[in-house]
Design a protein that fits this description.
Blueprint: H1 3-18, H2 24-45, H3 51-76, H4 81-97, H5 101-109, H6 117-138, H7 175-199, E1 203-204, E2 207-208, H8 209-218, H9 223-230, H10 235-249, H11 273-291
Antiparallel strand pairs: 1-2
Helix pairs in contact: 2-3, 2-6, 3-4, 3-6, 4-6, 7-10
Length: 310
């Protein structure tokens, strides 16, 4: 195969990706069908002893049917406002099925595995549905720009060639948004204090670091997790620090264009999915936990404060 053939293939794939508003609806329909088949298979198999898996499977089956109907309506009548409302409603239902995906990711990152493979797959499919359904709701299959529905020539920026759209210059978010970001950062402080107290050998709320380490061993923590704990490093505290980093990336200019310290990526625009995917995973897990905070109580008699999900 010649170099010119490879070049042509790469260009065509890039153009197809940039033209996502025109094919994302069909992709969402394929996702709904695949997820529905998998969820229905899990629901009818009956081989899992966990009722949570059974309930989740039936719920995801219903969500898949609802999403498929909404997507088919969007493909037939994309201009009707009610169709987009149905898509956003299906997007919200799919987000609920992604609950605890963050816990699955944490378990895989630290070598602990997942509590249940079928549930982990359903959680991942739920997040995929959120992305595809939201993209389908935002696509504009009109004569203008497929992303916004407006011809490019009508919204050309100063200094840009007529018929093109120039990306906005990276700017910081308004002060009110900064206040929310700082509030989110301060919300991590009590959790970080608690975890730091435990990993440094202290006692928090009557629970010692030895109690936490023993509970981690009983819950099947991986060797990597236990090693980090013995070094005074808590894995969830590291993820909290990463969350703060991503939070400020959403409000600072370096969250829109890679800064100089990123070396090879410096000057390039940050893909939207890079900060948004971790944010969606975090919100999909932490928001339901916050709504049901009564289940997350401090350990007593050596019990772990982290629910196993079983």
């Amino acid at each position: 195969m010649t170099d010119s053939t490879w070049t042509t293939k790469r260009i065509s794939l890039g153009e197809r990706w940039r033209d996502w508003p025109r094919w994302v609806g069909r992709a969402a329909l394929g996702w709904a069908a695949a997820q529905g088949v998998f969820a229905l298979t899990c629901a009818l198999s009956g081989g899992d002893e966990s009722r949570m898996t059974l309930w989740l499977s039936w719920y995801v089956t219903a969500v898949s049917a609802t999403a498929a109907g909404a997507v088919m309506a969007a493909l037939r009548n994309p201009e009707r406002p009610v169709v987009r409302k149905l898509l956003w409603a299906a997007c919200g239902l799919s987000a609920l099925s992604a609950f605890s995906l963050l816990m699955d990711v944490v378990g895989l990152l630290f070598g602990q595995g997942v509590d249940n493979t079928a549930r982990a797959v359903l959680h991942a499919l739920g997040l995929m549905g959120v992305v595809l359904l939201a993209a389908t709701a935002r696509a504009h299959p009109s004569a203008g720009c497929p992303r916004c529905g407006v011809p490019h020539a009508e919204r050309s920026t100063a200094g840009a060639t007529a018929g093109t759209v120039a990306g906005p210059a990276p700017t910081a978010a308004p002060r009110r948004v900064h206040a929310f970001a700082w509030a989110g950062t301060l919300a991590f402080v009590p959790y970080a204090w608690m975890k730091t107290t435990w990993v440094t050998g202290g006692t928090f709320a009557g629970v010692t670091s030895d109690d936490m380490l023993a509970a981690a061993r009983r819950n099947g923590a991986s060797g990597l997790w236990l090693t980090l704990e013995s070094w005074g490093v808590d894995g969830t505290a590291l993820l909290a620090a990463l969350g703060v980093f991503l939070l400020f990336g959403l409000i600072r200019p370096w969250g829109q264009v890679f800064p100089r310290w990123t070396l090879l990526l410096a000057g390039r625009r940050v893909p939207r999915w890079l900060p948004l995917v971790p944010a969606l995973i975090g919100v999909g897990t932490l928001l339901p936990y916050g709504c049901h905070r009564r289940r997350l109580r401090l350990p007593r008699h050596g019990r772990s404060p982290v629910p196993t999900g079983r």
